[in-house]
Design goal:
Two copies of one chain form a homodimer. Chain A is α/β, with parallel strands linked by helices and 356 residues long. The first copy, chain A, is built from twelve helices and 14 strands. Chain A has helices at 13-26, 40-46, 52-60, 84-94, 117-120, 165-180, 196-209, 222-231, 243-256, 295-307, 312-327, 345-355; strands at 2-9, 31-35, 63-68, 98-104, 124-130, 142-145, 155-164, 185-190, 216-221, 238-241, 264-268, 274-278, 330-331, 341-342. In chain A, the strands form three sheets. Chain A has a ten-stranded mixed β-sheet, sandwiched between helices. Chain A has a two-stranded antiparallel sheet with strand order 6-7. The longest helix of chain A is centred in the middle third of the chain and has 16 residues, at 165-180. Chain A starts with a strand and ends with a helix. Bound molecules: 3-isopropylmalic acid (IPM) (2 copies). Chains A, B: Residues 3-352 form the Isopropylmalate dehydrogenase-like domain. Chains A, B: It is found in: Cytoplasm.
Chain lengths: 356, 356
Amino acid sequence: MKKIAVLPGDGIGPEIVAEAVKVLEALDLPLQLDWADVGGKAYETSGHPLPPATLKLALDADAVLFGAVGDWKYDKLERSLRPEQAILGLRKALGLFANFRPAICYEQLTHASSLKPELVAGLDILLIRELTGDIYFGQPRGRRTAVDGHFPGADEAFDTMRYSRPEIERIAHVAFQAAQKRSKRLTSVDKANVLETSQFWKDIVIEVHKSYPDVELDHMYVDNAAMQLVKAPKKFDVVVTGNMFGDILSDEAAMLTGSIGMLPSASLDANNKGLYEPSHGSAPDIAGRGIANPLATILSAAMMLKFSLNQLDAAARIEAAVESVLAQGLRTADIWSEGTSKVSTIEMGDAVVKAI
Amino acid sequence: MKKIAVLPGDGIGPEIVAEAVKVLEALDLPLQLDWADVGGKAYETSGHPLPPATLKLALDADAVLFGAVGDWKYDKLERSLRPEQAILGLRKALGLFANFRPAICYEQLTHASSLKPELVAGLDILLIRELTGDIYFGQPRGRRTAVDGHFPGADEAFDTMRYSRPEIERIAHVAFQAAQKRSKRLTSVDKANVLETSQFWKDIVIEVHKSYPDVELDHMYVDNAAMQLVKAPKKFDVVVTGNMFGDILSDEAAMLTGSIGMLPSASLDANNKGLYEPSHGSAPDIAGRGIANPLATILSAAMMLKFSLNQLDAAARIEAAVESVLAQGLRTADIWSEGTSKVSTIEMGDAVVKAI
Ligand SMILES: CC(C)[C@H](C(=O)O)[C@@H](O)C(=O)O
Ligand SMILES: CC(C)[C@H](C(=O)O)[C@@H](O)C(=O)O
């Protein structure tokens, strides 16, 4: 019996997670599902976005199925109480350092991309973002009196970007191994022409490369990567980068596909325990209307079965079922187009269950 | 007599700057042009990418016309000697804190964009990037022994992101004033949900907003901005952001237009002295072949006349001449398409002169 912590969160989170759970239950696997509040919902029920009980459930579980957190109504809370602290807290406490962000353009949805179809048809990028280091968690940070810069003596705010050798080594190994399983090409993105942290990152990625001579490695500056993703996204295969640049580039890459409502993600620790969540956010503007696309969350459940629970067959069945509902022409509002059938969140979940 | 420091630099720099100079000379203005080496070229002639003589020329000038720096052949040099240190050094020494990066989609070139024409036709974004603060110059930076993070005791590299109050105030004023001259809408981009520096940035932008009640201000996280630029670029008008995020987003926005070879840029100090350069790089792969597009550099010269030399008529004449050569169907290789006439760098420069 494997334990799954189910954390639906805010906005459309509960609706889309319910469909993923329905799909998991249809597979009749030895799973024990335990629910808890997280994000704004948890703040409302227990005064903190990541209450101790929720954290304990996640720590004790074999995997976490996560919906989404955040809503404008929490914007006025002090930072430590805002919903997104839950996701940062979970990443840190669970040591989820390897974030897998596929950017896949589904054949039937190519037209939904902002880009010309020939540039995105068949797009399949795997962006691997380091998730527990960098400027997200670096110390010191806060307010101080400026010592350098153009206005010494003025008030300033500061943060620390940082990466240690073992942190870079372990994400580099994850990335090279992922590249070995795909096209054997890896692009490491940094800003080594400006940042000490990036130069260190680049040096260590080059060292780790020695253990993976079958993988072709190249390096790209982050500004250039942001451009090349727009210009010729299909030139990328596996991309590895730090937490901050990965935040920006993984979202840019996801949006290129035109169907971010389809994209799952996995955040793994060193033992393949992971947190699985859709790449999109909590979309409070459409919450409760039954129109959100549950497929990214359903595909996140498939990733969970594959990466954390070693249920490769079950994962493949979900993926095939999703392909099948798309082939049947079923579409939630976000991916709907002329000639396809518009379905609700629940109808989409039901269709996936039926296809399984 | 106004003094212009002309710094052609590396790669295609000399070719494109020569055309801009030709255009300036055709206008018969009271300008004194003085040349100096910069970047890799300067390293080769004097052992440093920004030799004292070049820096002095730039400091003494009323404006700097800059080509581009960088070539793969300098990749092995230690960081402080690499070509890009010249541009960082000039920004810092001249106090060029306000970088104007227009992302304009020219009517005749809309087809060259990766994006569907309806998404970019008429696109006209002005991205304002702070250019002398942030993690680019923050101290301390370097190597140390990790104190926090997952591997205390390990070697790590680090950098400091920082902004002081007056640095944020002055760029905010520049941005609000630019917005007042356009659609009166300003988007400030930050990562205030994670970074102390960003929260400070956001707070101060909100304060400065009080002096510009006619401007509508909104805030966007950098990851979302990277997405919205792809999804609906025309929703943006004036955007202001820090040095690091601005580096990434300004290049992404430029690439959306499909004709980065057309986009000028200005980097201004507090007194409208500025450095003007094309948004694209030194393109060493096509250097010396006479095929580079000089229009971004020619339009940078127009920005120079407008912002630093108060020669509004002359600037308008250049802009009109560029419109005219495009209308004539003249295209360098990067923007060429079926049915237009392919011209060389020099032919394009000549055509602009003729149109003036
Ligand atoms: C909510 C926020 C803290 C988070 C991040 O920046 O990592 C989000 O953007 C993401 O990418 O998961
Ligand atoms: C060359 C590099 C240091 C520079 C930067 O990052 O600012 C460049 O990318 C730019 O945007 O002008």
